[in-house]
Design goal:
Blueprint lengths: L4 H7 L3 H15 L3 H12 L4 H8 L3 H26 L5
Length: about 90
């Protein structure tokens, strides 16, 4: 399911909060597919890493490597999107 900026604005009456949530959501959605999968399962679905490892059939080391790579990629995306939307800090 994809959400638009308007969807986030409708969730809250605070524009800054809505834009912040939208930027975080898009930062994750702009990651490579395998990183999106692990981040969404961990944070959107609130699953434990052990359960995610089982679902994706990956080892502990792979899960941590993907997780760290995903954090790095989403952080780069977050900075780019913050500049585009005009948010200084989240």
């Amino acid at each position: 399911m994809n959400f638009s900026q308007k969807d986030f604005i409708l969730l809250t009456n605070d524009l800054n909060t809505a834009l912040g949530l939208y930027v975080i959501y898009q930062a994750i959605n702009n990651c490579d597919a395998k990183y999106q999968t692990i981040l969404k399962k961990l944070y959107f679905d609130n699953k434990r890493q052990l359960d995610v490892m089982r679902e994706l059939n990956i080892t502990h080391n792979t899960a941590w490597r993907w997780r760290l790579d995903a954090y790095n990629q989403s952080a780069v995306n977050l900075i780019k999107l913050q500049k585009q939307v005009g948010i200084n800090d989240l």
